[in-house]
Design goal:
mainly beta; seven-stranded mixed sheet; 11 strands; globular
Length: 128
């Protein structure tokens, strides 16, 4: 069964760091694009970061560039999202999504409907 499971969310103060994990099973990360999306209450789901399971290339939304970094560990079939300098506006449910893909990440990663495998989400709350 192809699935991804997120973990690592929580309540943190502004300026803090947090690392989210996405455990993939039923497939290997090679030849896949793996994305992190987030959705705040009342808002649309938006792309945060995307990583190629093939070569580790990444693509990040402008709102998180320089603060968030996506990475992958193919040996353990894990994908990570390192979030630094967190802001209250980063509060949302964060989702991991995966789809077979080889190509330019920017062409597909911003489109949630491109991804067919989704996790259940993990809540991140940034508040003092």
């Amino acid at each position: 069964q192809v699935q991804v499971v997120e973990s690592g969310g929580g309540l943190v103060q502004p300026g803090s760091s947090l690392r989210l994990s996405c455990a993939a099973s039923g497939f290997t990360l090679d030849y896949h694009a793996i994305a992190w999306f987030r959705q705040a209450a009342g808002e649309e789901r938006e792309l945060v970061s995307c990583v190629s399971g093939t070569d580790g290339a990444t693509y990040h939304a402008d709102s998180v560039k320089g603060r968030f970094t996506a990475s992958r560990d193919n040996a353990n079939n894990m994908v990570y999202l390192q979030m630094n300098s967190l802001k209250p506006e980063d509060s949302a449910v964060y989702y991991c999504a995966a789809e077979p893909y080889i190509g330019t990440l920017s062409l597909v990663c911003s489109t949630p409907s491109f991804f067919r495998t989704w996790g259940q989400g993990t809540q991140v709350t940034v508040s003092s």
